[in-house]
Amino acid sequence: MDTQAEGSMAVTIKEVVSKKDLKDFVVFQRRLYRNCPSFVPSLDFDELATLDKKKNPAFESCRARYWLALKDGEIAGRIAGIINEKYIEIWKHKYARFGWVDFIDDHEVSRALFETVEKWARDNGMEGIQGPLGFTDFDKEGMLVEGFDELGTIAGIYNYPYYLEHLKRLSYAKEVDWLEFQMKLAAALPEKIERMNQIVAKRQQLRAVHLRKAKDILPYTKEIFRLLNECYKELFDFVPLSDKQVTYYTKQYFSFIRPDLVQLIVDKNDKLAGFGLTMPSLSLALKKAGGRLLPLGLLHLLRAIKKNNKADLLLIAIREDLQGKGVNAMIMREGYKACIESGITLVEASHQLETNEKVLSIWERMDARQHKRRRCFLKQFQRSAAGC
User: Which domains does the chain have, with CATH numbers?
Assistant: First the structure.
């Protein structure tokens, strides 16, 4: 379905209905940022799978539609609209989500995209729309508002600075921010971390589990995701993962792990007390791959996993009964030690809520800088005078 954008004879909106449309939807971002040194592309097959209702188990509780904006016959923008019924049930907000949003610096294009997704949300009884968000918290989320000159990561969205002015003009306001940090590692493990690790391990009767092979993590994956569901339940807009989603993300996330960079802490009964997931940075490898595994993309990724001086800290979680008792020191010690032994000197921590003081306090004790900030925007729809 094509619709003419109001007020412009040059911009049209086309709904994604075919496999070709979906491929165009995914590839457009890479075309838009082809000359941007900070942009890191996703792998096409990952994006296509996430957006495919037949492959992504999130569609058991989500509805979604995708649109392309065309200007003078050329693709000039894209946007996804998502309604997550589980989110509405848990958080009691009838908000739709927008995501996968990109556009050229043209207000007619951005207006046409957002008017389309907003109308769809209203037609489905929504009272507002927020984003950029994905189907779950394990999709990329948050529009970059600081750190445009910093190299992106596999876990983060990159966007041009002009996006912010467009959203402001369209009456979107800040809902919440996430912060990101980059930490320099010393040549040796700081004594205070080692000392704290020993105290906590003895007092709480905890120990670290060291994995030898990637498949050694498989017995822990269900417990890892159970812990994530438990620890993140109070955080902004979090929706617990279903069993099918756990299986889906296990295949997606744990296929590229370096076992020595996974931090597992267990109690005296061998129950998971906390974990951290660090992996070698794939940013430069993904840029070389250009979104494709073949013919050389996989080789670039494997090389980056094997040898790298940068790493990304993607996830960290601590069991509720052990929070505030120093378990984070044990996780940091294990991760720090493994990075040093691997020649890693820089670690980037993925986005953390600006209100999550428990996690943010970790960086106060490290040689770290807050170098990026990303934002979720919200637009609440106004009711008409008749209350419709």
Answer: 2-178+376-380 (3.40.630.30), 186-344 (3.40.630.30)
